[in-house]
Amino acid sequence: MEKSRMNLPKGPDTLCFDKDEFMKEDFDVDHFVSDCRKRVQLEELRDDLELYYKLLKTAMVELINKDYADFVNLSTNLVGMDKALNQLSVPLGQLREEVLSLRSSVSEGIRAVDERMSKQEDIRKKKMCVLRLIQVIRSVEKIEKILNSESSKETPALEVRSPLLTGQILERIATEFNQLQFHAVQSKGLPLLDKVRPRIAGITAMLQRSLEGLLLEGLQTSDIDIIRHCLRTYATIDKTRDAEALVGQVLVKPYMDQVIIEQIVESRPDGLQTMYKKLLEFVPHHCRLLREVTGGAISSEKGNTVPGYDFLVNSVWPEIVRGLEENLPSLFNPGDPDAFHKKYTISMNFLRTFERQCGSQASVKRLRAHPAYHSFNNKWNLPVYFQIRFREIAGSLEAALTDVLEDAPAGSSFCLLASHRTWSSLQRCWSDAMFLPSLAHRLWRLTLQILARYSVFVNELLLRPISNESAKDIKNPVVTGSKDPSVTQGNSEDQGSGPSESKPAASISSTQLVYVVADLDRLQEQLPELLETIKPKLETIGFKNFSSISAALADSQLSLSACVPPLSSRIVRDLSESCFSYLKSALEVPRLYRRTNKEVPTTASSYVDSALKPFYQLQSGHKDKLKQALIQQWLEDALSESTQKYCETVSDILHSVRKMEESLKRLKQARKTTSPNPGGSGGGMSDDDKIRLQLALDVEYLGEQIQKLGLQSKDIKSFPALTALVAAAKDQATAEQP
Fold first, then answer.
1. In terms of C-beta density within 10 A (0-12 exposed, 13-18 middle, 19 or more buried), how is residue 67 classed?
2. Are residues 571 and 510 in contact, defined by beta-carbon separation less than 8 angstroms?
3. CA 259 to CA 257: how far, in whole Å?
4. Residue 441: what pLDDT?
């Protein structure tokens, strides 16, 4: 309070802190300093604090000076105050004694009133107990009087009067019995009630026996008035559950035992559907009157209905579940997944149809909250069913993801069996023959696991060495080896352990690499189709967040697409190496013309056709599997790499030829002879010029073939430089001719 009344002087606006911070009860120096350091340096904080300290000191001096006269006159103003206080002390003491005396008198009066009120409360409670006991005795006597008045000396009236009259009498008894029960509960523990309790028990037993007999009679005779009176009586005495249990035992249970028979169900292909059909017929055929009376039927009149009953939920459904669990235990066996899926699907359809018979949403909610409903759903061992399906799918997929890459079966849109099996596994997860709504989350996780496993498998293929098998041999490969690519080189180093421990490394051909890329492209194209298959399945369970599903599938698709660049690099490198293995035959050109007296070349060498053969095979053999743009990119990249090496080779050859030519010229000058060129015939083209011309023809032919492949020679790296190199050599060869 004191702090709230104190007003600190206002400081300059340039201060880095708020003056009110000092007046807070939880003010902390460390926190204050750390908070100010976020805004200013410590030196500036120190200067501001010193400035405000001076302001506080000045304000305090001004406050003292302002009230200085009052401080000085304080002792003067208090003269004679002691005498005045002494004069007031005597009357104040007398007043205090009078107040204490009055307070004592009032307290005694209050205590007397409280005692009398407490006695009256006790009398009232005892009076209420006596009245309740009197009411209990009167109710017992009244019920006994009704029973005695309806009895004869030899035959009770309940056996000779009409059922309707008996129902009215029981309803009167039930009304009185309800009051009896109320007062008996209120009088619990009183000795007199214990003496009357045997008579109450007798009335209860008689009333219950009469109601059971009357209800059964009404059901047997289909008398809706008797049933209505009987159910109203049950509701009056708060025994609705007893009536529902009686209907379940007497009316429902025998029917269920007659219909639910395991031998009959298993003897026919549609035995389960037939059984469920008969179970559904029970409600309209045997529960029509009960539903009309209790308001469960559409035709029920609201004024004549008896609320508080739900025979479908509390009588029929528990007996159905009991009958299925006891008489048809094989229904819930997940050993045969196909049969289990069929039984589960049929049973869930039956359950949905039964829910539609309930007649109201409130009844459906009560059904789904019933213990028998949960017991029925828990009987289906869905985790075991999923594990069996998981083993089937995973086993089939792993059998295809082996070291041996087999071709996909005829008619498949994929090239390899591994890719075909991956796609079929994804489709199977969401097929009608396997999918169950309760397992949607597990199946979605399995879908992502399958895609991740295939991605890992493709990455493992990148570690395999490329084999030199021909395309014909690759159709039926026989290579076997370890699944772990890390052992491809390890066994060759240790030969002492015997030949049984060294296995040939699993390899992959360039054709198979192309197949993998084609399958990856095809699988990514079909993932949106898979998503469209999944969406309706998830909608059946009320799932709406399809953006998360699409995002997860997009992540898997991104993981698959990330495998394409390294695969393309392997394919390009293999094509380049295969091409250059023939192009390096240009090194043999000098040997073919030097000192051989061969004719002047007019056509390109055969090695050029051989070098381009893999490109033509790729373009013609896989155009229906791959996108043309991807093939063209591979050809361009491979030709760029091989042309770079070829350009270096040709440059080395021309450099060697030039050095040889210069060496021969120097030798001729030293001998000062006029002999013809040692490398060729007199008057014709020299061997060196023939070599230059042959290389020029080879490069020109290579450019023509590149054009035939649908590529532009200018887009091939190093090819323009190669063309310029051989063009200069060709010009030199033709310029030296006479």
1. exposed
2. yes
3. 6
4. 92
Q: pLDDT (tens digit, 9 = 90+) per residue, 10-68? A: 888 888 888 888 888 888 888 888 888 888 888 888 888 888 888 888 888 888 888 77
Helix (H, G, I), strand (E, B) or coil at 151: strand
Residue 65's pLDDT is: 82
Note the helical H segments in 331-476.
Answer: 337-357, 361-369, 371-379, 382-400, 417-429, 440-461, 471-474
Q: Which tokens belong to 44?
A: 């500036």
Helix, strand or coil, per DSSP, at residue 508: strand
Q: Residue 680 and residue 683: Cα distance in Å, rounded?
A: 9
- In terms of Cβ atoms closer than 10 Å to its own Cβ (0-12, 13-18, 19+), residue 105 is exposed
- Give me the pLDDT at residue 558, please: 92
pLDDT tens figures, 438-449: 999 999 999 999
CB 526 within 8 A of CB 423: yes
Task: Give the per-residue pLDDT at 339.
Answer: 92
Q: Contact at 8 Å (CB) between 509 and 466?
A: yes
pLDDT at 445: 94
In angstroms, rounded to a whole number, what is the distance separating the alpha carbons of residues 195 and 389?
68
Q: What are the angstrom distances between the C-alpha of 421 and each of 399, 455, 519?
A: 9, 14, 11
As beta bridge partners, residue 508 has: 466
User: Measured between alpha carbons, how far is 490 from 481 in angstroms, rounded to an integer?
Assistant: 12
Q: Which of 643, 649, 635 is nearest to 708 (CA)?
A: 635
pLDDT at 19 (0 to 100): 82
